[in-house]
Design brief:
It is built from four helices and five strands. The protein has about 150 residues and is of the alpha/beta class.
Protein backbone atom coordinates (compact mmCIF):
# COMPACT_ATOMS: atom_id res chain seq x y z
CA UNK A 1 0.00 0.00 0.00
CA UNK A 2 1.41 3.38 -0.99
CA UNK A 3 0.53 5.91 1.69
CA UNK A 4 1.06 8.87 -0.67
CA UNK A 5 2.43 12.36 -0.59
CA UNK A 6 -0.45 13.77 1.45
CA UNK A 7 0.09 11.29 4.27
CA UNK A 8 3.80 11.98 4.52
CA UNK A 9 3.41 15.76 4.26
CA UNK A 10 0.95 15.59 7.16
CA UNK A 11 3.68 13.85 9.18
CA UNK A 12 6.10 16.65 8.28
CA UNK A 13 3.47 19.22 9.32
CA UNK A 14 3.19 17.51 12.73
CA UNK A 15 6.93 17.97 13.17
CA UNK A 16 6.62 21.62 12.12
CA UNK A 17 3.94 22.07 14.80
CA UNK A 18 6.31 20.53 17.34
CA UNK A 19 8.96 23.07 16.33
CA UNK A 20 6.38 25.86 16.76
CA UNK A 21 5.55 24.60 20.26
CA UNK A 22 9.27 24.66 21.12
CA UNK A 23 9.60 28.24 19.82
CA UNK A 24 11.60 27.17 16.78
CA UNK A 25 10.85 28.24 13.22
CA UNK A 26 8.08 25.75 12.31
CA UNK A 27 9.59 23.57 9.63
CA UNK A 28 9.38 19.78 9.65
CA UNK A 29 10.98 17.21 7.36
CA UNK A 30 10.89 13.46 6.88
CA UNK A 31 12.79 11.05 4.65
CA UNK A 32 10.81 8.13 3.23
CA UNK A 33 12.03 4.92 1.61
CA UNK A 34 9.68 2.18 0.45
CA UNK A 35 6.71 3.77 2.21
CA UNK A 36 8.54 3.95 5.57
CA UNK A 37 9.87 6.97 7.43
CA UNK A 38 13.61 6.45 7.89
CA UNK A 39 14.54 9.94 9.08
CA UNK A 40 12.79 12.92 10.54
CA UNK A 41 13.61 16.31 11.94
CA UNK A 42 12.31 19.73 12.75
CA UNK A 43 14.15 23.02 13.11
CA UNK A 44 16.23 23.07 16.29
CA UNK A 45 18.62 25.94 15.66
CA UNK A 46 17.81 27.64 18.99
CA UNK A 47 17.67 24.47 21.11
CA UNK A 48 20.96 23.11 19.74
CA UNK A 49 22.56 26.56 19.33
CA UNK A 50 23.49 25.53 15.81
CA UNK A 51 22.56 27.53 12.72
CA UNK A 52 22.82 24.34 10.62
CA UNK A 53 20.22 22.41 12.66
CA UNK A 54 17.54 22.79 10.00
CA UNK A 55 14.76 20.22 9.70
CA UNK A 56 16.15 18.86 6.43
CA UNK A 57 19.69 18.42 7.76
CA UNK A 58 18.47 16.58 10.86
CA UNK A 59 16.17 14.34 8.78
CA UNK A 60 18.98 13.54 6.33
CA UNK A 61 21.39 12.68 9.15
CA UNK A 62 18.85 10.33 10.73
CA UNK A 63 18.24 8.66 7.34
CA UNK A 64 21.98 8.23 6.70
CA UNK A 65 22.36 6.53 10.06
CA UNK A 66 19.33 4.32 9.47
CA UNK A 67 20.59 3.18 6.06
CA UNK A 68 24.30 3.18 6.78
CA UNK A 69 24.77 5.21 3.60
CA UNK A 70 24.90 8.87 2.62
CA UNK A 71 23.26 8.18 -0.75
CA UNK A 72 19.47 8.55 -0.72
CA UNK A 73 18.71 8.19 -4.42
CA UNK A 74 15.67 5.99 -3.79
CA UNK A 75 14.27 8.21 -1.04
CA UNK A 76 11.86 11.13 -0.89
CA UNK A 77 12.29 14.11 1.41
CA UNK A 78 9.06 15.80 2.49
CA UNK A 79 9.53 19.26 3.97
CA UNK A 80 6.98 21.90 4.91
CA UNK A 81 8.91 24.87 3.48
CA UNK A 82 11.12 25.14 0.39
CA UNK A 83 14.70 24.31 1.41
CA UNK A 84 17.31 27.03 1.71
CA UNK A 85 20.49 26.86 -0.33
CA UNK A 86 22.43 25.15 2.49
CA UNK A 87 19.82 22.38 2.71
CA UNK A 88 19.56 22.15 -1.08
CA UNK A 89 23.32 21.59 -1.20
CA UNK A 90 23.01 18.79 1.36
CA UNK A 91 20.20 17.28 -0.71
CA UNK A 92 22.38 17.44 -3.80
CA UNK A 93 25.19 15.52 -2.09
CA UNK A 94 22.70 12.93 -0.80
CA UNK A 95 21.43 12.48 -4.37
CA UNK A 96 17.90 12.52 -2.96
CA UNK A 97 15.58 10.87 -5.45
CA UNK A 98 12.66 13.16 -4.85
CA UNK A 99 11.92 16.37 -2.97
CA UNK A 100 8.37 17.34 -2.04
CA UNK A 101 7.86 20.67 -0.29
CA UNK A 102 4.67 22.40 0.79
CA UNK A 103 5.18 26.14 0.48
CA UNK A 104 7.75 28.36 -1.22
CA UNK A 105 10.30 30.44 0.73
CA UNK A 106 10.56 33.64 -1.32
CA UNK A 107 13.47 35.14 0.64
CA UNK A 108 15.94 32.30 0.99
CA UNK A 109 14.55 29.30 -0.90
CA UNK A 110 16.69 27.42 -3.39
CA UNK A 111 14.52 28.50 -6.34
CA UNK A 112 15.95 32.01 -5.98
CA UNK A 113 19.25 30.67 -7.28
CA UNK A 114 19.96 29.39 -10.76
CA UNK A 115 21.08 27.05 -12.09
CA UNK A 116 19.47 24.46 -9.83
CA UNK A 117 21.71 23.14 -7.09
CA UNK A 118 20.12 19.69 -7.14
CA UNK A 119 21.48 16.49 -8.58
CA UNK A 120 20.14 16.20 -12.17
CA UNK A 121 18.12 13.08 -11.33
CA UNK A 122 16.24 14.67 -8.38
CA UNK A 123 12.51 15.18 -9.02
CA UNK A 124 10.97 18.22 -7.31
CA UNK A 125 7.27 18.69 -6.46
CA UNK A 126 5.73 21.61 -4.60
CA UNK A 127 2.37 22.69 -3.22
CA UNK A 128 1.03 19.82 -1.10
CA UNK A 129 -0.63 21.43 1.95
CA UNK A 130 0.96 24.74 0.98
CA UNK A 131 -1.61 26.84 2.83
CA UNK A 132 -1.24 24.89 6.07
CA UNK A 133 2.54 25.26 6.03
CA UNK A 134 2.37 28.94 5.06
CA UNK A 135 -0.16 29.76 7.80
CA UNK A 136 1.98 28.00 10.42
CA UNK A 137 4.99 30.11 9.39
CA UNK A 138 2.90 33.30 9.37
CA UNK A 139 1.48 32.55 12.83
CA UNK A 140 4.97 31.95 14.18
CA UNK A 141 6.42 35.20 12.87
CA UNK A 142 3.29 37.15 13.80
CA UNK A 143 3.72 35.95 17.40
CA UNK A 144 7.33 37.16 17.35
CA UNK A 145 6.30 40.66 16.26
CA UNK A 146 3.61 41.09 18.92
Amino acid sequence: MNLGDEYFMKQALKLASQAFEEDEIPIGAIVVLDNQIIGKGYNQTEKLVDSTAHAEILALTAAYQQLGSNILDECTLYVTVEPCVMCAGALKWSRIGRLVYATPEPKSGFTNFQPSVFHPSTKVHAGIFADEAKFLMQDFFRSKRS
